[in-house]
Design goal:
By secondary structure, this protein is mostly helical. It is built from 17 helices and no strands.
Length: about 350
């Protein structure tokens, strides 16, 4: 920091991107600098500068009837489920009835403002954990813009009502697993040999285990200190690190996966893998060796899959038009765009 003239007391600027800075980020950003570093490397300051009154305006709109009753109820229901054992979110039982912590009030305002700002998302349960963790390190308005960055740049479309973005990333992850570790794929991809093709909608059942990994950015999946280290590299290097970390989890659990023969047991093994991974440095080292999974590769695969979905929607729309006109339905061979894993939209594991 001092070498580049950056302040070390409440910094708002950080060293330029370089191999040296990358090494330090991968070793973990100091807690006192973490939130500011996330905001800096995510270019949050530019968003804040370009939208100086947006957040305050959204807060005013929250006081009107613009926010849907469904979102209001869902947010209120989940407020006290957000890091319930954290002192910053847990109401003081000795205080007067109905009192809540300042951070809990901030979380309510942020989630309500976000639901108005991003109506295609509204409120989705995992957002309370993402926003809650951001609020532990950043002021409310900056946390709001970081949540926007997460849902547009790192997890585009993942939290939208259609869940298309979540399915896109699950497909990309399964493709990456197939290419990077064929021996694991031979086990988890059984019965769905065509998942590596962009012409199929099917995902292996094991992909259900990984849905919450991405939707909550590993909150509730890895220990919280490990989650913070993951977030450090994601905000510095991009969403490729989410995929690399998921692949590293599979790699560390490779032998346990290979030892299983029952499909139900396999599901349970993969679901439990991250809970036993306490050595985040070792996991980080494995993820950083996944050089073939670049940001360009991720972007290309995401684009391919979104194109596939667009074509499927066009087929479905064309078939519906023919039915409306009285003709026989056309068999497109395409699966329904509704997802078997849609239940995950409202189910993210409770963080202890």
């Amino acid at each position: 920091m001092r070498e580049q003239g950056c302040p070390t007391h409440f910094p708002d600027e950080f060293p330029d991107r370089s191999p040296k800075t990358l090494r330090y980020v991968r070793k973990g950003i100091p807690p006192a600098w973490r939130g500011a570093a996330w905001f800096y490397y995510s270019k949050g300051a530019r968003l804040l500068q370009d939208n100086p009154r947006t957040y305050s305006s959204l807060l005013s709109r929250c006081k009107t009837s613009e926010l849907s009753s469904n979102d209001i109820e869902s947010i209120e229901r989940d407020l006290h489920r957000t890091f319930p054992d954290n002192i910053h979110f847990k109401p003081d039982q000795r205080a007067s009835h109905g009192s809540e912590t300042p951070l809990l009030s901030s979380l309510r305002r942020l989630l309500q403002a976000f639901a108005i700002y991003r109506p295609q998302i509204g409120y989705c349960q995992s957002l309370n954990f993402l926003a809650g963790l951001l609020l532990l390190f950043l002021p409310e308005e900056k946390a709001f813009w970081m949540l926007h960055i997460i849902t547009t740049e790192h997890l585009p479309g993942t939290h939208e009502i259609s869940l298309e973005g979540a399915n896109v990333d699950l497909w990309v992850l399964m493709l990456a697993l197939k290419e990077s570790n064929p021996s694991i794929w031979a086990k988890v991809g059984v019965g769905d040999e065509e998942t590596g093709s962009i012409h199929t909608a099917r995902l292996p059942p094991i992909s259900l285990c990984t849905t919450s990994w991405f939707m909550s950015m590993f909150i509730g999946t890895l220990p919280i200190e490990s989650v913070l280290r993951v977030w450090d590299v994601v905000f510095y290097e991009g969403s490729k690190m989410l995929f690399r970390m998921a692949l590293a989890i599979f790699k560390v659990g490779e032998q346990r996966i290979k030892d299983v023969n029952d499909s139900m047991e396999l599901f349970q093994v993969v679901q439990a893998l991250p809970r036993d991974m306490m050595d985040i440095s070792a996991l980080m080292a494995i993820s950083c060796r996944r050089g073939g999974i670049t940001q360009e590769w991720i972007s290309k695969r995401r684009k391919e899959r979104r194109t596939w979905y667009a074509k499927e929607r066009a087929k479905v729309a064309g078939a519906a038009t023919l039915i409306d006109e009285g003709d026989s339905p056309v068999a497109t061979g395409s699966p329904s765009l509704s997802r078997a894993n849609s239940s995950w939209r409202r189910r993210v594991g409770r963080v202890r």
